Hints:
Blueprint: H1 6-9, H2 15-36, H3 45-49, H4 57-79
Amino acid sequence: MSQVDRRSSGSRIGRRSFLKMAALSSAVGAGGVIASANVTRDATDEEIKNPYPNAKKEDAYFVYTLSIGLLNMINSKVQA
């Protein structure tokens, strides 16, 4: 096994930093491709009036109460 001196290798960036920058550049590149490919469209008047046609009010209440309960539980664990 040969020893590699970090100072002489010429690379001043760490592995984790490199992976983060690579992921960020990939996401930006993919976003640019999607934006230029005309994959979105303008919403119709019906979609603007009713953006979630299959949603029920009960579902929203359930999600709200569940999230409040989870936040209270996390808060009690953090303060304990």
